[in-house]
Amino acid sequence: EKKAAKTYHADKVYFCTNGTTSANSICASALLSEGDLVLFDRNNHKSLYNSALVMSGAKPVYIPTDRNALGLIGEMDPAFLTEDKIRAEVAKIDPAKAKAKRPFRLAIVQAETYDGVFYDAQWIIDRIGKLCDYVLFDCAWGGFEEFVPIMRHLSPLLLNLSPDDPGILVTQSLHKQQAGMAQASQILKKDAHIKGQKRYVDHKHFNHAYLKFVTSSYAYPLYASLTVNSYVTAGAGNKKWWDQTLRMGIEWRKKLLKKSKLFKPLVPDNFAEISTDELATNAEYWEMGQSTDWHGFRKMVPGEAMIDPLKITVKTPGIDVKNEKYEKTGIPGAVVAEYLMENHIIRAKNDLNSLLFLLTPGDSQAELDTLLEAFLSFEKHYLEDDLMKDVLPVLYNEYPKRYQGYTLKQLCQEMHEYYQENNTFVLQQKLFSKSGMQDYQMTPATADQLFKKDQNELVNLENVVGRIAAEGALPYPPGVFIVAPGEKWGVVDQKYFEVLAHAIEKFPGFVPEIQGVYLSENNNGSLCVQAEVIKNK
Where are the transmembrane segments (predicted)? Predict the structure, then answer.
């Protein structure tokens, strides 16, 4: 832990072995008490809804977030991050605290989204820092930025902090792209600059929270991998390995641009003409803002965030990202993901018209070559209109009646038209930019208490609008609540889950994991979709 603290520029590091879910829970437990206010990025993972809001009893001030037309998870809406706007939102919940110097005990920010939109930590601190005692950067999807020169400026652990700044907590999933085994995570604490102030959390109090969540039955291989990560990242070769990985990913994108007619990486328009050396050493090519449209995020302002070059997003046909509109023909990401799975390749995530892949120093050129060949092989099957039974035999053999005689292109087009008819990417955008986010009927903690006391009822999805959610509802991945406990279900929430549910019914085998919404079969064989809501008094 001391080695990691030195390498990552933290004051103290705590190793965790139940993933960043436990790391986040420890941070929330150490900082938050019932009634505290939390500035809450609506992109936060469900572990933070559960720990910071449900378990701690704190009150959220939700910040709306952006999605692009691919459904990729973007940034907090910068229009909501001015001091005046934040205080106005606080006043809706706690008028007295709206006037306080620091209304928030904690701000929780998804430092990097699942899809690789990575905040500049200084940009965040400049806007919200003086309003918060502490800021927790959930960096489950990052953590390696200090070792990549074009990303180094993003790190919350390299900030030049003064006694007037907030304390900094960072959580990292070391198993995603660093050297930890599955469930290996760490908390990095950087708050010596506020030591002696009333808001400071010392080791005794932080460790008190830590001990609530760690097991006494240690999994020594996990701890060994955490230790290995500390020494690997401190070694002289670490930055060199990351540089090699970065360049390998750049070259892979260029090969895809050159060889594929259908699939494109999410990169600037002139990417192929820029030298690999220039792309690997100049951050401006990865930065996003309203002056560029290749990324499709309309609310992003200069300096707010950049796209993580160590995450490859591949766009599938069907959506014009720049102009935010559906195209006539398309290939849904789920179909490509199934093809890759049947060929023993696991993507990190797929969305409506994209697939995500994480690059690590453990990846080889041979593995990336295999991935490229798989995309080109799918493309060949698609263009030649091959039968599903030959291209996706595992899925076909599970549902032979449904897909009898179907070609790959026919499946893709039918699914594309279904999502197009329902304007699905627009629904996704509306879900996370809803007006009135502070109008929740009760806190998440109160809703959870009522749920535990069985003051809830299961209602059909068509009757859910206007009812208070007893538990959060989300598709997984990415694990971000669409409806949080204590919120009223809205029309857009109902419509989105209706689209997902009917997709499951219409396209068996392409089933996203859904939590907080229950699927069963009616007597007539149709799909029954329900959700738990608080009973009306």
Answer: none
Q: What residues does each domain of the chain span?
A: 2-234, 238-376, 440-534
Q: Is the CATH number 3.90.100.10 carried by domain 440-534?
A: yes
3-state helix, strand, coil split of the chain in percent (to 5) is 40, 20, 40
Q: Which residues are catalytic?
A: 45, 138, 176
- Sign of torsion over alpha carbons 406, 412, 415, 418: negative
Cα-based distances in Å from 216 to 128, 174, 213, 226 = 38, 21, 10, 17
By CB atoms closer than 10 A (0-12, 13-18, 19+), residue 165 is middle
Task: Decide which of 3.30.110.30, 3.20.20.190, 3.40.50.300, 3.40.640.10 is the CATH code for 2-234.
Answer: 3.40.640.10
CA 10/CA 17 separation, integer angstroms: 19
Is the pLDDT assigned to residue 34 strictly greater than 80? yes
Q: Cα-atom radius of gyration of the chain, to the nearest Å?
A: 23
Report whether CATH 3.90.1150.10 matches the domain 238-376.
yes
What pLDDT, in 10s, does the model give residues 138-184? 999 999 999 999 999 999 999 999 999 999 999 999 999 999 999 99
Say yes or no: do domains 2-234 and 440-534 share a fold: no
Is residue 455 scored above 80 in pLDDT?
yes
| Cα 271-274-277 angle, rounded to 5 deg | 120
The per-residue pLDDT for 448 is: 98
Using DSSP, state whether 418 is helix, strand or coil. Answer: helix
- The Cα–Cα gap between 99 and 90 comes to 9
Q: Provide the residue type at 231 as one letter.
A: Y
